[in-house]
Write a structure and sequence with these properties.
This protein is an alpha+beta fold and 108 residues long. The protein has one domain. 45% of the residues lie in helices and 19% in strands. Strands 1-2 form a two-stranded antiparallel ribbon.
């Protein structure tokens, strides 16, 4: 995502998971830390999350925090052309996606 571009580290990392490598670009300052974070289980969770979100997904691990960005058409995007009930439904659905991100990516 464009607002996270400045956070990209200079070293490109390739994991042993070719499917993951084909779907995601991984950059790190420290290769050892990247492999510590990107366990096989976490890579599976990331791919599952990207599939469920059905959109462009970006993950940034920075200062012991995980930032997740998902680009979807409806993500908190109010529209004057849609009734308030439809906008409310979209916002509730987006909040459920955020909760799902927590459950998929943070749960052990």
């Amino acid at each position: 995502m464009s607002n996270m571009i400045g956070w990209k580290a200079e070293n490109e990392i390739h994991t042993e998971n070719e499917i993951f490598n084909s779907r995601f670009s991984v950059f790190a300052y420290d290769e050892h830390n990247a492999y510590y974070i990107l366990t096989p289980q976490r890579m599976e969770k990331i791919m599952y999350f990207a599939d469920v979100m059905n959109g462009q997904v970006s993950f940034v691990f920075r200062d012991e925090k995980l930032f997740v960005a998902v680009r979807r058409d409806s993500m908190f995007d109010a529209s004057i052309d849609e009734p308030v009930s439809k906008q409310t439904k979209n916002i509730i659905e987006d909040a459920e996606f955020i909760q799902m991100a927590k459950e998929i990516l943070i749960a052990s």
